[in-house]
């Protein structure tokens, strides 16, 4: 699956970079969290036209709608398939917004995708539940500051290792505070048998896009082994 990751600075570049990714073979395109302030400013109709024109899915980012933080999912017919809501609100978001209470997954071209919005990645039980439901690629729109970028990437790498799934992240680019640095990671087994989080795509601090080609069959045996190892348990207090 060829996945486009877009780091826009404003509306025009978001549309043009998304179309460039689609022209160059992207079958699904992911944009960051809050790359624009409000969902009312998001050119959803333009993204819908592009999705239909190129027969591709587009997740145009995650945005506040006055109630929650939502990520629209546009399908390959240009229709709004659904929305994912941020379950774990961050800092002052808790004072203004309501959290979601459902993890969202969907199947596209035979691949199971999950969506996790920014701070949701900090909570491993959410990603584990998606993994147990069969998710093979996790899509993560985020808006992470420069000071926290390396720690953020640690979370992404660890979720890849814990669950043996690919993680594709689009991080907001809005200098000087938000550096972009979007990244895509897959689990890979080395010749020594150790599984590592392999970076297969990375953007710098710039308006740009990338296309990563991720084949879940390349790590399906790793997912299978991890599923066999997962054991349900209870906690007993002594």
UniProtKB/TrEMBL annotation:
InterPro entries named among the record's database cross-references: C-N_Hydrolase, C-N_Hydrolase_sf, UPF0012_CS
Using the record's annotation, list all stretches that form the CN hydrolase domain: 1-216
* CDD domains reported in the protein's UniProt record: nitrilase
Bilayer-spanning residue ranges: none
Q: Which domain of life is it from?
A: Archaea
- Name-wise, this protein is Nitrilase
**Species this protein is from:** Saccharolobus caldissimus
């Amino acid at each position: 699956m060829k996945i486009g990751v877009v780091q826009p600075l404003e509306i025009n570049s978001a549309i043009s970079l998304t179309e460039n990714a689609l022209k160059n073979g992207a079958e699904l395109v992911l944009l960051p969290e809050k790359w624009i302030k409000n969902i009312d400013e998001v050119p959803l109709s333009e993204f819908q036209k592009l999705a239909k024109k190129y027969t591709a899915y587009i997740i145009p980012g995650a945005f506040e709608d006055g109630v929650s933080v939502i990520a629209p999912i546009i399908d390959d017919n240009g229709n709004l398939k659904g929305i994912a809501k941020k379950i774990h609100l961050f800092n002052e978001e808790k004072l203004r917004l309501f959290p979601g209470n459902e993890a969202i997954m969907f199947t596209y071209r035979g691949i199971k995708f999950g969506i996790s919005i920014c701070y949701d990645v900090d909570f491993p039980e959410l990603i584990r539940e998606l993994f147990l439901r069969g998710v093979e690629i996790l899509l993560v729109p985020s808006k992470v500051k420069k000071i926290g970028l390396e720690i953020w990437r640690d979370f992404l790498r660890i979720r890849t290792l814990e669950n043996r799934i690919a993680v594709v992240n689009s991080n907001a680019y809005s200098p000087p505070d938000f550096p972009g640095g979007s990244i895509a990671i897959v689990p890979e087994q080395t010749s020594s048998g150790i599984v590592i989080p392999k970076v297969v795509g990375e953007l710098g601090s710039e308006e740009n896009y990338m296309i990563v080609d991720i084949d879940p069959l390349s790590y399906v045996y790793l997912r299978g082994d991890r599923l066999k190892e997962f054991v349900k348990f209870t906690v007993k207090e002594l």
